[in-house]
Amino acid sequence: MNLHEYQGKEILASFGVKVQRGIVAHNPQEAVAGAKQLTEETGTGWHVIKAQIHAGGRGKGGGVKLAKNLKEVEDIADQIIGMDLVTPQTSKEGKRVHQVLVAEDVYYPGPSETSEFYMSVLLDRSKGRNMIMYSTEGGMDIEEVAEKTPHLIFNEEVDPAIGLMPFQARRIAFNLGLSGNAFKEMVKFVSSLYTAYVKSDASLFEINPVLKTSDDKILAVDAKVTIDDNALYRHADYAEMRDLREEDPIEVEAKAAGLNFVNLDGNVGCMVNGAGLAMATMDLIKMAGGAPANFLDVGGTADAKRVETAFRIILKDTNVKAILVNIFGGIVRCDRVAQGIVDAYKNMGDAINVPIIVRLQGTNAEIAKELIDNSGLAVHSAIEFQEAADKVQEVLK
């Protein structure tokens, strides 16, 4: 589950990570009120207005601007709220901005220069360890830094059974070229950040930039946070942070129906029971010359209503040219699934306007094939994997 910047900063601050303070606003009036409050609390006269969407590169699209007075706060908030913000990480249509974060200006003058760093915490699946990735080149596209100057990217592996050791936090601060109070502040920052990552059950914390202020404070100026969906039962307060407006509406509908669904950009829709079989089915479609349009696991209760819901969700994608139903009859018998497909097909009528290939294997597979073949519907039945692949090729041609 992705979070907005202001939500991510709330989680970081709850674990002692120092962040750039800010107040979320849903209209220009709230933005002005938030700016006044920040001025009273921090003394800042300038404010940064940041669009809150689930995408990076907001500044490049005009979604992050500096306001030097309250009139500019109001005008900029009015410009950003309601706009369709296009960034390198959105579609060409962009994402609608519903709120902004009014943040304090932390680039104030002081006894030393400010410095920007990059830092993220994530899981290295190949090694089964957590990893802190960091760089002196903050405030930039980290992908570009990795491509052009890979020697400026550092990694610190952390054994999850032991946790982050003090010497590792010190090594990170040393590699970032810090000394004195800034060094001590970075050690605290790294330790708190890793604690937040583990205890919040996050799958990603990305801070770009981490700022060393002119008076040697270390702050998270931005925060990209992704929480592991499977751990939300432990964090009811985090679950309430979910912003469905930022998510794919088809995936939201599928989740509400109890379907495991991920939208892709192919031309063959998939309806499968079981995640492993679904992955194999996607490979099958690719080998047959197509491309999967989705990942959809209907689970072990593929009755008529569930199948009909799955069909309707798949067909909302106008790129779908065919649908492959691949069911293994273990928990649920194949003939029951076949009857569910026939009933759903009849209920939907003309709504199904693409060829359907149905492969049923397992308990009562032969009976299921007879049900499909004798239904009189435009459904192609198969039992073997290769047979299903051949029929996919056939209908795509």
Automatic annotation (TrEMBL):
Residues 2-210 form the ATP-grasp fold succinyl-CoA synthetase-type domain. Binds 1 Mg(2+) ion per subunit. Its cofactor is Mg(2+). ATP binds at residues 50, 57-59, 106, 116. Pathway: Carbohydrate metabolism; tricarboxylic acid cycle; succinate from succinyl-CoA (ligase route): step 1/1. Mg(2+) binds at residues 208, 222. Keywords: ATP-binding, Ligase, Magnesium, Metal-binding, Nucleotide-binding, Tricarboxylic acid cycle. Residues 271-391 form the ATP-citrate synthase/succinyl-CoA ligase C-terminal domain. It comes from the Bacteria. GO terms for biological process: succinyl-CoA metabolic process; tricarboxylic acid cycle. PANTHER family: SUCCINATE--COA LIGASE [GDP-FORMING] SUBUNIT BETA, MITOCHONDRIAL, SUCCINYL-COA SYNTHETASE BETA CHAIN. Belongs to the succinate/malate CoA ligase beta subunit family. NCBIfam families: PRK00696.1, sucCoAbeta. This is Succinate--CoA ligase [ADP-forming] subunit beta. It comes from Zhouia amylolytica AD3.
